Amino acid sequence: MTGTSARNSFGIFKSKRAKLLAVKYRLDLYDKNAYIHHGNTILYSDVKFIVDNIWMDHFMYGTDKPIDLSFEEYNDIYYSLQDTFPGLFNFSYA
User: Fold this and answer.
1) Per residue, what are the HEC states of the chain?
2) What is the pLDDT of residues 19-68, one digit of tens each?
3) Which of 3, 8, 43, 75 is the most exposed place for a label (fewest CB within 10 A)?
4) pLDDT digit string (tens) for 1-18?
5) Which of 37, 41, 53, 52 shows the shortest CA–CA distance to 10?
6) Which residues contact residue 31 at a Cβ distance below 8 angstroms, ignoring those fewer than 6 apart?
7) What pLDDT is stored for residue 2 in this prediction?
8) Which of 60, 62, 34 is nearest to 49 (CA)?
9) What gap in Å lies between CA 36 and CA 45, rounded to an integer?
10) What is the C-alpha to C-alpha distance for residues 68 and 65, in angstroms, rounded to an integer?
11) Are 10 and 19 spatial neighbours (Cβ–Cβ below 8 Å)?
């Protein structure tokens, strides 16, 4: 076995999926301290946590959309977050 076969080619990320999500949302690719994590590498769930919070800020407080998406993708994200966190999207502007 060569030394290169055991190396993680995803940098601080444990998987390609985690790194690609971080790239998609222009998150830090080199500083582990930019993520809430346990252990030596950044998991997909660590990146997803940040992405979900960015979207919740957008939906709850009207911040800019983090990335441009189609209308269908935008709705998918909204309803997915609404299912995951049902009490957060009950707005009352009275």
Assistant:
1) CCHHHHCCCCCCECCHHHHHHHHHCCCCCCCHHHCCCCCCCECHHHHHHHHHHHHHHHHHHCCCCCCCCCHHHHHHHHHHHHHHCHHHHCCCCC
2) 999 999 999 999 999 998 888 899 999 999 999 999 999 988 899 999 99
3) 3
4) 444 445 678 999 999 999
5) 41
6) 12
7) 47
8) 34
9) 10
10) 7
11) yes
Place of tokens 């990146």: 47
pTM over 0.85: no
Find residue 42's DSSP bridge partners: 13
Cβ pair 71, 42 in contact under 8 A: no
Cα distance between residue 64 and residue 55, in whole Å = 9
Q: Give me 15's structure tokens.
A: 């998987």
